[in-house]
C-alpha cells in the first residue's frame, strides 16, 4: 500500500514512475484502496530490467512484517538493482531484513530507510545498521507514549531508559555509602586487566575499590595505584577476604585471572546462599571461560537468587563457550540469543560487540532488553572489556539495579570511546569517564 501511494505522489510531482508488484493486494485492505488510486501500469518483477546508474528504487514490497524467505522473483530483482548501482530507499524495512532479528537474507546495503513511529530492533542490531543506510523515523501521528496491547520490552540503550536510576551523592555521604567493589587479580604478570577494572569501578562512582590477589601480584599493583586499596588473598582464601571488606556490594572476577578452578570456587562463594554474601557479581573473560564445559553448574548457582545478581559480559567467542546451542541457532538474531541466554542463566547478559545487547531474564527479572548504538571502533583495544566490567560493578556498588547498571555502563563506555578518540588505549577510556555527564531523566 505504501508503495502505491509513493508512486502516485511522485507521478503527481512529474517523475517518470514504474510500478512492479509481486501480487495484487488482498481485497478489502488499505493496500487495495491505495492501489486503486494508482492509474498507471503495474508490471511484474520479471519485467524489472534497470540500467546502470539510472533511476531510484523504492522498495515497499514487504516491510516490518516480513518472515521466511524472499521469493526468487523479488530477490533477483533486488539483486539486479544492486548490481547496476541504483540508489535504493526502503519503506519501513528493506526486503529480506528481518525487523526483529536484524538477520538479512540478501545483505544488500540501501541508501536510506524510512520507518514509522519507532525504530525496529532489526534496524539497529545484527546486519541492520549496514543494510538500512540513513534511517529516518517518520511521524505518522501515533502518540509517542502509545504502548498498544503490551508495554515495550525492547529499547535503544539511551539515558532515557536508565537515567533516573543513576545514583546520586547526598550531602552527608561517605565512601562506604557509595559502595565497595572487590576485583580479583590475576598472577604476577597478568595484573593489568584487574587494575583497569578497579580504576573503572572507582571512576564510575564507587566509594571504595579493593584489588584482591597474591603477594606477588599486589607488589606489581602497588607500583601503579594509589587510591585503589590492596588486600592479600591466597588461593582458597576468597571467602575470608570478601567477608573482611566493609560494605562490599559488587565483585569483578575474570579479567586476566588465569585460574579456572579458583574462578569457579570464588563464583560459588559469591552466589551461594549458604555464604550469605549479598553481592552482585560481574563475571568476565576468564571467569566466563572457566565454565565453558560446566555452564549448568554456573546457571544452577545463579538460579538460587530470587532476582538476578550475576552479570555475564561475553563477546561472541565467550558466548559460544557457555551457550553453544543458542549461539549456533541460525534462526535467532543477536537480540534473541541474548534474551534466551538471560532466561537460561538467570543473569543479566551483556552480549558485547558493535551492537552490544543487554538482556534481563523474564522469569526472575523484568524481561527488558536494550540495544546499544553508541559504540565505536575506538573500543576495539586490549583492556576495553575490563574497563566495562569495572563500570558495571561500580554502578551496582552504588545500588543501581544490575540491568540498569549494565545498560548505563555500556552507554558510558561508548561515550568514553568517543571522548578518548579513534585510536585510544584502555587507560584513556578510564580517564575519559570523568567527563561523561548524564542528566537525570524520567525512565521509560
N- to C-terminal separation? 32 Å
Structural class, from secondary structure content? Answer: alpha/beta
Overall geometric form: elongated
Strand count, sense and barrel status of the largest sheet are: 10 strands, mixed
**Share of residues in helices:** 25-40%
Q: Can you describe this structure?
A:
There is one protein chain. This protein is 35% helix and 14% strand. It is an alpha/beta fold and 444 residues long. The strands form three sheets. A ten-stranded mixed β-sheet has the order 7-16-15-14-13-12-11-8-9-10, with helices on both faces. Strand 3, helix 3 (72-83) and strand 4 (87-91) form a beta-alpha-beta unit. The protein starts with a helix and ends in a 12-residue tail after the last helix. Residues 440-444 have low confidence and may be disordered.
Which features does this protein show?
444 residues; alpha/beta; ten-stranded mixed beta sheet; 18 helices; 16 strands; 14% strand; elongated
Describe the secondary structure blueprint for this structure.
Blueprint lengths: L1 H11 L6 E2 L9 H7 L5 E2 L12 E4 L12 H12 L3 E5 L20 E5 L4 H4 L3 H5 L1 E5 L15 E3 L2 H4 L17 E5 L7 H12 L4 E6 L1 H8 L6 E4 L5 H6 L4 E6 L6 H12 L8 E4 L2 H4 L5 H9 L6 E3 L3 H7 L1 H4 L6 H12 L2 E4 L5 E3 L9 E3 L12 H14 L4 H19 L5 H7 L12
Parallel strand pairs: 1-2, 3-4, 4-5, 5-6, 7-16, 8-9, 8-11, 9-10, 11-12, 12-13, 13-14
Antiparallel strand pairs: 14-15, 15-16
Helix pairs in contact: 7-16, 7-18, 16-17, 17-18
Amino acid at each position: 500500500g505504501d508503495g502505491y501511494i509513493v508512486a502516485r505522489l511522485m507521478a503527481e510531482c512529474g517523475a517518470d514512475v514504474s510500478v512492479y508488484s509481486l501480487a495484487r493486494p488482498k481485497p478489502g485492505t488499505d493496500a487495495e484502496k491505495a492501489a486503486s488510486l494508482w492509474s498507471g501500469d503495474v508490471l511484474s518483477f520479471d519485467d524489472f530490467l534497470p540500467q546502470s546508474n539510472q533511476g531510484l528504487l523504492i522498495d515497499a514490497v514487504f516491510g516490518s512484517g516480513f518472515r521466511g524467505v524472499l521469493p526468487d522473483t523479488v530477490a533477483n530483482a533486488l539483486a539486479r538493482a544492486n548490481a547496476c548501482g541504483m540508489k535504493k530507499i526502503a519503506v519501513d524495512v528493506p526486503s529480506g531484513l528481518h525487523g526483529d532479528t536484524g538477520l538479512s537474507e540478501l545483505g544488500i546495503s540501501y541508501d536510506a530507510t524510512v520507518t514509522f513511529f519507532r525504530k525496529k530492533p532489526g534496524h539497529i542490531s545484527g546486519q541492520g545498521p549496514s543494510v538500512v543506510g540513513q534511517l529516518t523515523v517518520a511521524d505518522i501521528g501515533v502518540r509517542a507514549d502509545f504502548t498498544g496491547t503490551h508495554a515495550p520490552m525492547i529499547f535503544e540503550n539511551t539515558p532515557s531508559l536508565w537515567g533516573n536510576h543513576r545514583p546520586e551523592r547526598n550531602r552527608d555521604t561517605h565512601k562506604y555509602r557509595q559502595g565497595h567493589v572487590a576485583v580479583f587479580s590475576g598472577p604476577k604478570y597478568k595484573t593489568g586487566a584487574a587494575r583497569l577494572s578497579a580504576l573503572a569501578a572507582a571512576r564510575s562512582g564507587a566509594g571504595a575499590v579493593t584489588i584482591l590477589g597474591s603477594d606477588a601480584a599486589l607488589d606489581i599493583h602497588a607500583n601503579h595505584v594509589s587510591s585503589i586499596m590492596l588486600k592479600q588473598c591466597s588461593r582458597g582464601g576468597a571467602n575470608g577476604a570478601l567477608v573482611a571488606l566493609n560494605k562490599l556490594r559488587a565483585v569483578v572476577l575474570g579479567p586476566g585471572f588465569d585460574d579456572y578452578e579458583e574462578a569457579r570456587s570464588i563464583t560459588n562463594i559469591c552466589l551461594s546462599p549458604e555464604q550469605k554474601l549479598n553481592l552482585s557479581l560481574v563475571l568476565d573473560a576468564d571467569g566466563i571461560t572457566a565454565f565453558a564445559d560446566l555452564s549448568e553448574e554456573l546457571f544452577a548457582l545463579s538460579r538460587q537468587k530470587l532476582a538476578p545478581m550475576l552479570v555475564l559480559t561475553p563477546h561472541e567467542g565467550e558466548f559460544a563457550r557457555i551457550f553453544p546451542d543458542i549461539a549456533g541457532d541460525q534462526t535467532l538474531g543477536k537480540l534473541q540469543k541474548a534474551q534466551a541466554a538471560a532466561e537460561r542463566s538467570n543473569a543479566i547478559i551483556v552480549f558485547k560487540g558493535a551492537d552490544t545487547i543487554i538482556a534481563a531474564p523474564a522469569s526472575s527479572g523484568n524481561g527488558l532488553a536494550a540495544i546499544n548504538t553508541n559504540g565505536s571502533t575506538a573500543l576495539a583495544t586490549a583492556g576495553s572489556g575490563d574497563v566495562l566490567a569495572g563500570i558495571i560493578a561500580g554502578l551496582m556498588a552504588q545500588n543501581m539495579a544490575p540491568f540498569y547498571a549494565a545498560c548505563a555502563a555500556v552507554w558510558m563506555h561508548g561515550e568514553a570511546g568517543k571522548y578518548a578518540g579513534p585510536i585510544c588505549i584502555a587507560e584513556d577510556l578510564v580517564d575519559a569517564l570523568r567527563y561523561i555527564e548524564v542528566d537525570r531523566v524520567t525512565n521509560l
